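WARN retry 2 of 3 for item q-0093 after timeout on previous attempt; input resubmitted unchanged.
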Amino acid sequence: MRIPDDYLQAQVALALAEDIGRGDVTAALLPAEQVATARITSREDAVLCGTAWVDEVFRQLDPAVTLDWHLPDRASLHAGQTLCHLTGPVRSLLTGERTALNFLQTLSGTATLTRRYVDAVAGTGCRILDTRKTLPGLRLAQKYAVQ
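OK item q-0093 returned
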């Protein structure tokens, strides 16, 4: 399933507007020219999902931020595993991290639970299907996560 660009852009724009509103006062305390490197690490075994949303968060905030994903969406990962390295202006990294992680955690959680259900019924002839019971505004994202 491919997520339409306009949907992804609108969803991320809304999330950023909700999260940072007029700006991130904490990030504003840091020097504008300071560059940093960060990493996203898994706290538990899971299925990765939502990399496009994370990419879009930083694309909208600051195209100078670069992301280097070590795994693709739907890859199984282990606790402590580094998923991504990010490099860019420290203000941009701090401003976008909460929104980016919210998408990544929500979609990876959905993908992980779905994988557990699929594994539980493997070999029984049963199939796990998604429904319309999704969070408002996240239907396509959640359907993407259960693929």
